[in-house]
Design a protein that fits this description.
Its EC number is 1.17.1.8. It holds the Pfam family DapB_C. Keywords: Amino-acid biosynthesis, Cytoplasm, Diaminopimelate biosynthesis, Lysine biosynthesis, NAD, NADP, Oxidoreductase, Plastid. By secondary structure, the chain is α/β, with parallel strands linked by helices. Strand 5, helix 5 and strand 6 form a beta-alpha-beta unit. The protein is built from eight helices and twelve strands. It has two domains: 156 residues, 3-Layer(aba) Sandwich (Rossmann fold); 106 residues, Dihydrodipicolinate Reductase, domain 2 (2-Layer Sandwich). The strands form two sheets. It has a seven-stranded parallel β-sheet with strand order 3-2-1-4-5-6-12, with helices on both faces. It has a five-stranded mixed β-sheet with strand order 8-9-7-10-11, with helices on one face. The two termini are 32 Å apart. The longest helix has 14 residues.
Length: 281
């Protein structure tokens, strides 16, 4: 770990630093003129105490890998308390994301969370906790600007269609299903407060689950997990005589970096936790 502060620069800690997304984030933060890396969190045992820059082929950075998230955040908060408040970027696992987010807020560090799979109840608890603490944060299911445009188009199209199904496709190392991005898309469509996909016949499944998961609104979501995929989403509307398809494909994780940096630069102005990149645009 490196706890030296840089005046006028945004201090950043990255959790999940050795993962596919985390390593891309580390590279982006190191290359950003208005940010500096202060901590790298990861649980890989044989990497503890090693320099994150050397591990990722980015040269010596003076920031060592640690699995002690709370200890790291505590030290960073002490160094930055009277100057620039720090930001935690989290790309870890659904099982720990609630704890990581709450811990960051408790130490006055602004969380920017890319990990999906958090329950609605936990999200509401964290929004209230952050509001009382006066510490802004952002839970972002997807940092792609393109996916935000898809979601807005889907919400607009839903006014004219009564039948819609969503399919999301990801790599087979993604733990949660459906994806947080796809859930967010469904939630935006459901803001119309109407029902979808009213059955025309009595359906049955000879293979359980083949029709996908059904939300209370009637929207069905299908999840695909395969090696070779990164992140993809399709929204398919249907009406008599036509279909309308919206699709977004992420082929490289660099697509997320502009949206991520937007969140890092704006999150410290917030006074509570917000949900969705569109809240920052």
């Amino acid at each position: 770990m490196s706890y030296s502060n840089v005046e006028g620069s945004i201090p950043v800690v990255v959790a999940g630093a050795l993962g596919a997304m985390g390593s891309q984030v580390i590279k982006t933060i190191i290359g950003a003129s208005d940010c500096h890396l202060m901590g790298a969190i990861d649980i890989v045992e044989d990497k503890q105490g090693l320099d994150i820059g050397l591990e990722l082929g980015l040269g010596h950075q003076g920031v060592t890998i640690t699995n002690d998230l709370e200890g790291c955040l505590c030290q960073v908060s002490q160094v930055t308390r009277n100057s620039n408040h720090a930001v935690l970027i989290d790309f870890t696992h659904p099982q720990v994301v609630y704890k990581h987010t709450r811990t960051a807020i408790a130490y006055g560090i602004h969380p920017v969370i890319g990990t999906t799979g958090m329950t609605k109840e936990n999200l509401l608890e964290l929004i209230e906790f952050s509001r009382k603490a006066g510490v802004g944060g952002a839970l972002i299911p997807n940092f792609s600007i393109g996916i935000i445009l898809l979601q807005q188009a889907a919400a607009a199209a839903a006014r004219f269609y009564d039948f819609v199904e969503l399919t999301e496709l990801h790599h087979n190392l993604k733990a949660d299903a459906p994806s947080g991005t796809c859930i967010k898309t469904a939630e935006l469509i459901e803001e119309l407060d109407k029902s979808f996909n009213q059955p025309k016949i009595e359906e049955y499944e000879s293979l359980l689950g083949c029709r996908g998961g059904r939300r209370e609104s009637g929207i069905r979501i299908h999840s695909v997990r395969l090696p070779g995929l990164v992140a993809h989403q399709e929204v398919l509307f249907g009406s008599p005589g036509e279909t309308y398809t919206l699709r977004h494909d992420t082929v490289d994780r660099s697509a997320y970096m502009p949206g991520l940096m937007l969140a890092v630069r704006k999150v410290r102005r917030l006074e509570s936790l917000v949900y969705g990149l569109e809240r920052l645009l």
